[in-house]
């Protein structure tokens, strides 16, 4: 077990920093605008909160009008759900793939961390990521792409990290993101 709370609080802080003028900006995610990234964040927070409570998965479609209130509430719900011991037991489904619940939490922390970076970059905000969170994201790679080649990661081609890249930049490159994206 680990606490998803710090990652959800950081994501909520970033969501709070999004201005209307940011919504049509590009993001490091393939062809997504900030608006589309926020819709994805709303979707996956709902899915992972439902997974924690073993409820039927019913992801929302699109970005709701009151996203500034809804997304932080769903983030808090996600963290609360995974604080329950029962969240870590049994099997759940994520993206149509059955997996142990504990592995689903690893996917959740990876999504929270990587998409927080996407949102921070696209909206000119700073991101705070703790080392233990990076440990969990690296665990994601070990679980879901153990046979990946140096050129191919779990999401497709790996990007090149700059010389002297820090740990987080190397992780971002493994997801196919250019850590220098602006």
Please give a structural write-up:
By secondary structure, this protein is mainly alpha-helical. It has a single domain, classed as dinb family like domain (Four Helix Bundle (Hemerythrin (Met), subunit A), Up-down Bundle). Helix content is 50%, strand content 7%. The chain contains six helices and four strands; from the N terminus they run H-H-H-E-E-H-H-E-E-H. The protein has helices spanning 5-16, 34-52, 67-82, 101-122, 131-144, 167-174, and strands at residues 91-94, 97-100, 152-153, 156-157. The strands form two sheets. Strands 1-2 form a two-stranded antiparallel ribbon. The chain has a two-stranded antiparallel sheet with strand order 3-4. The chain starts with a helix and ends in an 8-residue tail after the last helix. The mean pLDDT is 93.
Give short descriptive properties of this protein.
about 180 residues; mainly alpha; Four Helix Bundle (Hemerythrin (Met), subunit A); two-stranded antiparallel sheet; two-stranded antiparallel ribbon; 6 helices; about 50% helix
